Amino acid sequence: MELGNNIRKYRFENGELSQQDLANAVGVTRLTIHSIETGKFNPSTFVALKIARFFKVQFEDLFYLIYEGNDNGKNG
Amino acid sequence: MDRFLKWGGILLGVAAIGFFIFDFLFFQNLRPRMVAFEPVTAVDESKIIWTGVGFLIYLGCCAISLLRIANFLRRAKRVIFIFLVSILAGAIAILFVFSDIALLSDIGKQHSYGLSQPEWFLLYPIMVFQFFVATFFVFLNLFGFNPENLLETVVFDSNIFITAQYVGLLCGFLGLSAAALGYIFPFSWNPNIHTIMTLVLIPLPYCLATAYWIMTKLKDRTQGFFDEKQQLDVGRSAFWTLVLDVIIMSVLFILNFNNLRGVTSINWLPIFLFSSLFLFSLGNLYFGQQNV
Predict the structure, then answer these.
(1) B223 — phi, psi (to 5°)?
(2) Domain A2-71: which topology?
(3) Residues 186 to 225 of B: which have CB under 8 A from any A CB?
(4) Global ipTM
(5) Which chain A residues are within 8 Å of B157, Cβ to Cβ?
(6) Tell me: the pLDDT tens digits for B187-203?
(7) What's the pTM value of the predicted model, to 2 decimals?
């Protein structure tokens, strides 16, 4: 089971917001945003909620669980 | 401020190049006479003082250029390769100033004792390298800092931290190489003097890079020194450094079990410190960038 996310989609919908701009808004490095977006790093609840609040969406709209061999999330 | 640093770096760089040319001409004249054990004149001694002044100016050029690179990297879109090479070359060039002084001092002593001076053949390539670094820094200060490579705002930067790890990797490698000399050349390596000099000088660039990174963190007032992913990476890196250090030190102990009072009695500390620095920096780079 893995954590999936729609950060790329919401960045696109927010005027192709750059990873650096999102990192500035959340208070982490650009590399951290990149790692979260590509699913290589699972953020803390604190950072995940900050990203959700920044995009003004529900937590579950941004992050979802991917079950083995079955994408069970909301990937837009 | 940046304009002041830019022109300061250029002027000191040009002056340092001038002093290197002066040194090459002076040594070209001095070396045959010293090798032939002819006496050193008062004029030669006064010229040596100007050589020392040239080294101080060269240190100033390197320091200003490195500071400009560090300031630029903080807002750079990524760690630019040419700047990374510049930092490593600058760090080595600064360390070489101390070896220049040590070599010139050795040459003077060898001459006064009537001994041959093979140090000349080490001094020339080092100074040629320093000459090229000074020339490179002049061009870098003139044309190397393109504002198009800068981001408007970076709240939590990682470039300086990454650069400090590259410098740590280099210092760790140089320190381990220097420590190995104690085993390879046990008779020409004075354990007390050379080991202590190595311990003091080689970590200097890493200490400066880390101090600069700490200063930027204190100035930026970000939440903590690391963000959460960096914290995880540093933790993993520290764990592997501990594991590998225990193995390395155990192997060193077993291999030298019959000679623990020899060079190992003092060399274990630099091996431990420099291997920790090398592994920790390598780990931070590996865990920090493997996902990018």
Answers:
(1) -75, 100
(2) 434 Repressor (Amino-terminal Domain) (1.10.260)
(3) 222-223
(4) 0.80
(5) 29
(6) 777 777 778 878 888 89
(7) 0.81
